[in-house]
Amino acid sequence: MSAAQKKIGMGLIGPGFIGMHHIDAVRRLGFAEVVALADHKADSARIKADEAGIPHAYGSPEELIADPDVDVIHNTTPNHLHFPVSMAAIEAGKHIVSEKPLAMDPDQCRRLRDAAKAAGVVNAVMFNYRGNPLVQQMRDMIAAGEIGTPVFVKGQYLQDWLTDDKTYSWRLDPKLGGASSALADIGSHTCDLAEHVIGSKIVSVLADLGTIVKTRYTNGSSHAFSGTQSGDLKPVEIAGEDIATVMLRFENGVRGTITVGQVLPGHKNDLQLEINGRTASLHWVQEKQNELWIGRYNAANAILQKDPSLMLPAAAKYAHLPGGHQEAWTDAFYNMVKAIYGWVQAGPSSPQPEIVSTFADATHITEIVDAMLRSNAAGNVWMNVEGK
User: Residue 124 is inside which H or E element, if any?
Assistant: First the structure.
């Protein structure tokens, strides 16, 4: 980039926990600049912008969207604001990066998908676990036939941050978080990762959902990950699931299961994915993300360390350090942002980067979660994923 070329301008709407990681990843690019931040009030936006060294602060999404220096908008607001903020960005002709879920229900997602396509803007949803080098290694090994025909998928995403009944978050309020809780939050990651790695879509599900903590207590705070609350606590009845087990059928005939839970003591961010093929198996654990287990029937099992010199070339480009140097969650997040901004540089009409989840991809994930809710409500029966 020459000195005369303008850096891509990024604007963030919703400066919470995850928003700060969006800012960090964009700043690592070098060819982009964080120029603006918007919060629900102008004074809080100014405070957060000053803390992060961002020049412009706005008290509403509309003001930030109208800023001519903002080329790409990152929507990291609570779920109920995803649709209006993203739609406003699309209507303004801005490229849009959204946190998941894309919107509150499949209909809203389809409207965003269609609007983004019609507007010709880059659109992406941050299913950031795709950005792990060894996730891409799994995907490339399967595509190359190195484990034979895939036959079974086992995924899990287990957490314990909601174990205490005195922990409460906006994610548990269906008006703010949506009809689904654990599945929309972490089950979506598991499904997206499984589909991305094996290269096939989930077409039907059989779901069993449960709510272990049916009553929670809150002092009125609803910040995500706020931890145990104290003071004058009032009870809140919980409708959304905090555990779920789901059987899956994929378009290519693969069967599978996923298990999610957010009230399971000792499990911090326990995302795992195993793919069993006819000749070998692969197993990746997010909390040990620099290792890939390779299982064999007629040979010794092995552990592939994250080492670009040992990985397939297409996957090795996502590993930025030599073998033995650990890469982390933030590096996978950066890989996703780098791919998205590379797409912005190349232009929206250029091919979609392989690791990027578009609004179309994310709409399908929301349709899967909707099918899971319908399956459970109908008495735990097989339900087709409905797409339009």
Answer: strand 123-125
